Amino acid sequence: MRSYGKLFIGGHWVDPAGPDIIEVHSPHDRSAVGTVPHAAPQDVDRAVAAARAAFDDGPWPRTTPGERQRTVARFQELYTARAAEFAALITAENGSPITVTTGLNVRGLPEQTAAYLRAAAGLEWEEKLPSGALLRREAVGVVAAIIPWNAPHQSALVKMVPALLAGCTVVLKASPETAIDALALAEVFAEAGFPEGVVSVLPAGRETSQYLVAHPGVDKVAFTGSTAAGREIAATAGARLKRVSLELGGKSAAIVLDDADPTAVARGLMYHSLGNNAENCQAHTRILAPRSCYEETVQAVRAMMESLVVGDPARPDTFIGPMVRAGQQHRVRSFIELGIAEGARLVTGGPEVPEGLEGGYYVTPTLFADVDNSMRIAREEIFGPVLVVIPFDDVEEAVRIANDSDYGLGGGVWSADHERAVGIARRIRTGTMLVNGAMPAFDGPFGGFKASGIGREFGAVGLDQYIEYKSIAV
To answer: Is 293 noted as a catalytic residue in this protein?
Structure first.
């Protein structure tokens, strides 16, 4: 058990305003992981007031960009020293396999932060235009960063690091499912030496999130989560003309061309479709395969899915762990039952809980074939290990099907002809396309078209989301 009795508000550990606590239980075996205070609206008021004072009158927005970069770099050094500890804690909280949390926290986050630091170091924060006017880049203000549970530290730092580099102050609202690691992250911020008021961390549920979004002291909301919640946030922020960036849901398509190797495709989709238990907004859950080699693709993906180890996420050989909570397990199993009812061919898996894992929130990895893109299992984000294979006759039809979605977050193209694949990638209305399983880069922008969100994260474009532009005519 790991428990906290205080909240981190304005750089200080303080007693919560109310008596409510969040109990975190392992989705693997439902054992207790720990407890933290549940932040109340009064705690939001204190955190926003501290952030407001620090931004309006404190030193942080007025330090040099180089000083801010050095403080963020010191934070990352301290974080890296504890990254393996944080990976294990997150695995215990949300069921992400330890290989995923280790890869992200130990190896991925240093590069994510380094890309932001490079962008900040290369930016002209004030420059003279050809007209003689001055162009200034200034911090947007007080930022409310609201994050989900599936990759909590990555989701937090992809917002907090660029905001801090720009000179903003930040109130982080963490999800109840991963509340403990949020306050562990606050320990690093406390040690790194940020000035008073600059950082607060509040674990809480939806009502506290809504209160924070609507708070008049907040200048910008940066949110990662469901499209439904994103729409509510956008409406609230729009009424108050707050800045927003929203990284929302997805139903990404992987287009398999007729010259691709089905076995290689399946091996790549293991990570891009099913990584992190497929509780991943950019997961390639629609596989588009040509009729000329349709069944070969289906069977290659089936063999891959049946080879995956499902079980205790703390074991290094586990690829699929439990869903984060009982409600998510029920949702995913309901979609499997829906796919059967819709008439899709069940190739492997099914709604039954894997044998021997009934004590946790497990789902059997499931593959459907002969799926029409109009079916709900092909249109709605399931957020679990359920894949569908949709046939197409030619490339034009594949492009049409890939673009026939409310979402536009991720996707991929598989082909032996690199230039052919890149040409098709250019035609898909989505924020990130991967060619032959390439990994996205931290210096390239990440975000979505259509219902997948507003704004971008990572690198120079991500840093720009926390900057206001001022022109001074002289």
So the answer is: no
